[in-house]
Design goal:
Shape of chain B: flat
Shape of chain A: flat
Largest interface: A-B, 44 and 38 residues
Radius of gyration of chain A: 24 Å
Order of helices and strands of chain B: HHHHHEEHHHHHHHHHH
Strand order of the largest sheet of chain B: 1-2
Helix content of chain A: over 70%
Largest sheet of chain B: 2 strands, antiparallel
Strand content of chain A: under 5%
Number of helices of chain A: 12
Helix content of chain B: 55-70%
Oligomer: heterodimer
Structural class of chain A: mainly alpha
Order of helices and strands of chain A: HHHHHHHHHHHH
Largest sheet of chain A: none
Number of helices of chain B: 15
Distance between the termini of chain B: 53 Å
Amino acid sequence: MVKYILKRLGLLLLTLFLIVTLTFFMMQVMPGTPFSNPKLTPDQLEILKHAYGLDKPLWQQYLIYIGHMFTGNFGTSFVYTNQPVITMIAQRLPVSMQLGVQALIVGTILGAFMGKASARRKNGWLDGIFGFVSVLGISVPSFVIGTLILLYLGFNLNLFPISGWGTFSQTVMPTLALSLAPMAVVTRFVRSEMIESLSSDYILLARAKGLSEKEVVNKHAVRNSLIPMLTLIGPMAANLLTGSVLIEKIFSIPGIGSQFVDSIPAKDFPVIMATTIVYAVILMLFILVTDILTAIVDPRVRL
Amino acid sequence: MENINKDFTLVGSKGSDSTEKIAKPALSFFQDAWRRFKKNRVALVAMWVIVITLTFSVISAVVVPQSKANYFNPNKTQVYGNLPPKLSGDLPFWNGEFKAPGSSTRSNVYEEQGVEKGKNYIFGTDKYGRSLAKRTIVGLRISLIIALAAALIDLIIGVTYGIISGWMGGKVDLVMQRIIEIIQSVPNLVVVTMLALLLGQGISSIIIAIGLFAWTGMARQVRNMVLSYKERDFVLASKTLGQSTWKIAVKHLLPNVSGVIVVQIMFDIPSMIMYEAVLSAINLGVKPPTSSLGSLINDGIASLQFYPFQLIIPAIVLSVLSLTFIFFGDGLRDAFDPRASED
């Protein structure tokens, strides 16, 4: 186990290094510069370039970036002068994290319940309704759902504050919009897992032992259906963070996603790079953790 | 007795070979899959919707060219701008009446803005007075072109990569799989955004951006299938008979893997349609006068508070489109692999 985790962490570092290298050089070939203000004189441009170290040869810039990265220094933003990128991210990441975690919790719990109910009343009307809802959750993009929620719950019914961040009620609508997709995926997944386990031999045995239906379902079927769900949650959690880019934009939430979107047209390279790195690290860590958790929970999985 | 013998023929009395056989007619893999697919009614409907949509998109290219959907008269935006949907004056909800922003009662916007009599926009118009119906038709076409072309790139790279990785095995496979893992650990949105930035705006660059990142799932699926098939007896027999590797790949592996490939493509297409929409929503999609479903939705979001129909129509088209591909893919998966079927 320990050997496996160390191996995976090593691979993670290698991957990260490759991602940093790739994005760094991609930034260089990208058209346009952040300093495209026509009012800048060539002299001022030189000063700016010197200040950000952009006048050095490319390989030196690269080595400097790598060196700084290890000390947690991701440079300063081109757009927000003198604002270290690391503090910008430190301010905004928790916001996105909170939103992502809330959506994940709501989505998986609702999804698990709906999947369980669907599987127990297979082909019944409840199954039909939940099936329809989960199909909607998969096919309607979250930013469309988000805007519709904003329009009807926010503008028309005035139930929740329309935008901003800080109070819990402000997180309700974006959480709802974000949680629909994971809820749909979990519902479908749990349903098919449950149907499979309900028809397996150990359920037959449990029934033969005279356990009540409730015990059969909750103690045996549900438990065995939830374990494979773990493998879903890792990528889903990371997706929620990146997927919230548009939701953050719609609800004007000061998260890392809206920062990423803003930094693209501004060509704020340090911010784009740092965000990419943060996203990649989160994604890889989530997948690693779920792999480890699966191994702990399910003894059949050997690492 | 003679009469009876005339009316009845005794089964098997002739002792012919044909009556000895009790097997069902031999079906090829695809015939068998089609037989199972037909039983899934939802998937069958989805298939027809896709066929109709594709035909419609091709035909509409003649009737509604892009220039027609983009054209507007800058002097008349007051007259034609932001009209609500209207099919005919008699229908209760589709008669051009609308609660205009700021007012509290519904009124006939067509009359107020002085639109010629008999001129109806069934999906309404946008703020420049362009017909939303035309723009949605063009948008649907462009979104489909982007998705299908990106799927083609996905197909070519993914299948080739998967076959090479699975067939070579060993160290090559190890390295190739690590490369896939690295690509997958960069969040999709970031990759697509970067590529879109790198290649510039425009339909072709979006296609390349989406196609270049989306092939990893395909490559993995194909590799797994190749790994399991390459040890089978018929491949070994082929090898023993001195068949070239290339021919084995094309003649033996590809037909066996094709089911997985088709299903994977059907699941990839809706996510590509979605990625196009996301790119347009963060202003990295198609260039402005051109409309795609994503850019229409993005425009709709901007005017949502006052003119919700401008968002809802392209959003419904987008959702129905991805829905049909998902259902079609589901049906295909069950047809190709009956064990995966739930019931």
